[in-house]
C-alpha cells in the first residue's frame, strides 16, 4: 500500500515522495528538492526538481478550505476541473498553457510543466517590464478558448454536457460574493478599504443606489449566462510570462459563464499596472514610455480580440442562425458591453474587497495610493453604468484618461 492511497494535505517532503512514486519523470535514486512556491488565495503549489539534472515539475494540491479564509469551504473537485481545462485549452490554444502530466483524484493534485523560466506577470509589471507580444498572445488564447466552446460552434448537446461537467458552484459563489456583491455593500464585513479613502468609498460605492442596481443586474447575468467555458480568474497573477512566451495558469474557477468576464479581467488588471506605474515611477521619460505601452496594450486587447473573434466566427460557426448576416457583430457587441462591466467590477473588488492586488497595496505614498484608487474606482463606475456605450479599445482608454484628469 502507498501512503498516497488516502487523501491528506502534503508538505514538501511528502510532495518529493509523491513525485518519485507517482510520476515517470524521476527514477528511484533521484535526489529531489521540493519547495512550496504558491502565494495564491486558494491552493498549495510546490516545485520539485532533481539536484543533478534539469528535470522539474510543479505539483498543485487542493485543500477543502481556501487559504485566504477558512470561511470558504471548497470542493476539491476544482483540481479535476483545472486539469481537464488545461488539457482542453492546450488543444484549443496550443503553447499558451502549461502541459499537464498527471491528475490524481485521490490526492486531489495535478502535476504539470514547470514554468520557472517565466515570471508571474503581475510581479513583472510591478517592476515596470514591457511585453510587446502579450496582446497578441492573450487575445488568441481568449478567442480560441471562449468562442470555440460556445453554442455558436459546438453541437448543442455537446455544449450542454460540458456545462454539466464543469459546473463549479463553490468557486462561483466566491466570485458572486467577492466580485459582484461585497464591493458595493460590504454586507459580510470583509472588505478592506484603505482608511484614507473610506469616506470617499462609502459615498461613491456603498451609497450609490444606481451603481448597486447595475451590479445586481450583472450578478444575475453571471449566475445564469452559460455562454462559454471561461477561465474565471484571468488576471495578471494567473499568467506566466517572458519576452517571447505567455502561459495562462490556474483555471480552477472555470465554468460556463459570460465571455466578457475573462476579457474584462485582463483589461482591469492592465489598468492596475497602469495605476502602479503612474504612482511609483519617478523618471518622467520612463513613466511615459511604460504608461504608453500599457495604454496601447489595453487598446489592442479589445481591438485584436474583436478582429480575431469575427474571423474565427466566420471560419468556425456551425449554428444555422449564427450565420445570419450581422448576427456575429451583434453578438460581439454584447460581449464588449459585458467586458466593460467586468472591467469595472474587477477594478472595484480588487481595491475595496477581500482579495486585493499588490499593484495598489504596494504604493507606499499615501496620497499617491489614494489618487490611484480613486482613478480606478471613478473609471470603474463609468464602465459599469455606461457599459452599453463601449465598442472599441479607444473607448476603454478614454474612460481611464477621463478619470485621471478628474483626479489630477
Question: Helices and strands in order, then pairings?
Answer:
Blueprint: H1 12-22, E1 32-36, E2 44-50, E3 56-61, H2 78-92, E4 100-104, E5 109-112, E6 119-120, H3 121-126, H4 134-146, H5 156-165, H6 169-178, H7 198-206, H8 209-224, E7 228-230, E8 239-242, E9 245-248, E10 255-257, H9 259-280, H10 284-316, H11 327-352, H12 358-361, H13 366-385, H14 393-406
Antiparallel strand pairs: 1-2, 2-3, 3-5, 4-5, 6-8, 7-10, 8-9
Helix pairs in contact: 4-10, 9-10, 9-11, 9-13, 10-11, 10-14, 11-13, 13-14
Which key phrases capture this entry?
408 residues, alpha+beta, Phosphorylase Kinase, domain 1, Aminoglycoside 3'-phosphotransferase, Chain: A, domain 2, 2 domains, 14 helices, globular
Descriptive notes:
This protein is an alpha+beta fold and 408 residues long. It has two domains: 3-112, Phosphorylase Kinase, domain 1 (2-Layer Sandwich); 119-406, Aminoglycoside phosphotransferase (APH), C-terminal lobe (Aminoglycoside 3'-phosphotransferase, Chain: A, domain 2), CATH 3.90.1200. 51% of the residues lie in helices and 11% in strands. The protein has 14 helices and ten strands. It has helices at residues 12-22, 78-92, 121-126, 134-146, 156-165, 169-178, 198-206, 209-224, 259-280, 284-316, 327-352, 358-361, 366-385, 393-406; strands at residues 32-36, 44-50, 56-61, 100-104, 109-112, 119-120, 228-230, 239-242, 245-248, 255-257. A five-stranded antiparallel β-sheet has the order 1-2-3-5-4, with helices on both faces. Strands 6-8-9 form a three-stranded antiparallel β-sheet. A hairpin with a 2-residue loop joins strand 8 and strand 9 (245-248). The radius of gyration is 21 Å and the shape is globular. The N and C termini lie far apart (67 Å). The relative contact order is 0.11. It is an enzyme of class 2 (transferase). InterPro entries: Aminoglycoside_PTrfase, Kinase-like_dom_sf, Methylthioribose_kinase. Homodimer. GO terms for molecular function: ATP binding; S-methyl-5-thioribose kinase activity. Keywords: ATP-binding, Kinase, Nucleotide-binding, Transferase.
Amino acid at each position: 500500500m502507498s501512503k498516497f492511497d488516502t487523501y491528506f494535505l502534503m508538505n514538501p517532503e511528502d510532495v518529493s515522495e509523491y513525485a518519485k512514486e507517482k510520476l515517470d519523470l524521476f527514477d528511484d535514486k533521484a535526489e529531489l528538492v521540493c519547495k512550496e512556491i504558491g502565494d495564491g488565495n486558494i491552493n498549495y503549489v510546490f516545485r520539485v526538481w532533481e539536484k543533478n539534472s534539469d528535470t522539474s515539475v510543479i505539483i498543485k494540491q487542493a485543500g477543502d478550505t481556501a487559504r485566504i479564509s477558512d470561511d470558504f469551504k471548497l470542493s476539491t473537485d476544482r483540481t479535476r476541473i483545472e486539469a481537464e481545462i488545461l488539457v482542453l485549452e492546450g488543444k484549443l490554444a496550443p503553447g499558451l498553457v502549461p502541459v499537464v502530466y498527471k491528475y490524481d483524484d485521490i490526492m486531489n493534485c495535478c502535476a504539470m510543466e514547470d514554468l520557472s523560466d517565466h515570471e508571474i506577470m503581475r510581479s513583472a509589471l510591478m517592476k515596470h517590464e514591457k511585453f510587446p507580444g502579450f496582446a497578441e498572445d492573450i487575445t488568441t488564447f481568449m478567442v480560441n478558448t471562449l468562442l470555440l466552446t460556445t453554442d455558436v460552434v459546438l453541437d448543442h448537446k455537446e455544449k450542454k454536457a460540458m456545462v454539466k461537467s464543469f459546473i463549479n458552484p463553490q468557486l462561483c459563489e466566491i466570485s458572486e460574493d467577492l466580485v459582484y456583491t461585497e464591493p458595493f455593500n460590504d454586507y459580510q464585513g470583509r472588505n478592506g478599504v484603505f482608511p484614507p479613502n473610506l469616506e470617499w468609498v462609502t459615498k461613491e460605492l456603498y451609497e450609490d443606489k444606481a451603481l448597486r442596481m447595475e451590479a445586481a443586474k450583472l450578478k444575475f447575468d453571471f449566475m445564469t449566462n452559460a455562454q462559454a467555458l471561461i477561465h474565471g480568474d484571468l488576471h495578471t497573477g494567473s499568467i506566466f510570462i517572458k519576452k517571447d512566451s505567455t502561459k495562462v495558469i490556474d483555471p480552477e474557477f472555470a465554468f460556463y459563464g459570460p465571455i466578457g468576464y475573462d476579457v474584462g479581467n485582463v483589461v482591469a488588471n492592465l489598468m492596475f499596472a497602469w495605476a502602479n506605474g503612474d504612482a511609483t515611477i519617478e523618471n518622467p521619460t520612463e513613466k511615459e514610455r511604460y504608461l504608453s505601452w500599457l495604454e496601447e496594450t489595453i487598446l489592442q486587447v479589445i481591438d485584436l480580440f474583436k478582429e480575431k473573434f469575427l474571423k474565427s466566427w466566420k471560419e468556425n460557426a456551425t449554428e444555422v442562425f449564427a450565420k445570419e448576416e450581422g448576427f456575429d457583430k451583434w453578438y460581439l457587441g454584447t460581449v464588449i458591453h459585458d467586458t466593460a462591466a467586468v472591467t469595472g467590477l474587477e477594478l472595484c473588488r480588487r481595491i475595496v474587497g477581500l482579495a486585493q492586488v499588490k499593484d495598489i497595496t504596494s504604493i507606499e505614498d499615501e496620497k499617491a495610493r489614494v489618487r490611484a484608487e480613486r482613478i480606478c474606482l471613478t473609471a470603474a463606475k463609468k464602465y459599469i453604468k455606461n457599459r452599453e456605450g463601449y465598442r472599441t479599445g479607444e473607448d476603454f482608454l478614454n474612460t481611464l484618461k477621463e478619470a485621471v484628469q478628474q483626479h489630477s
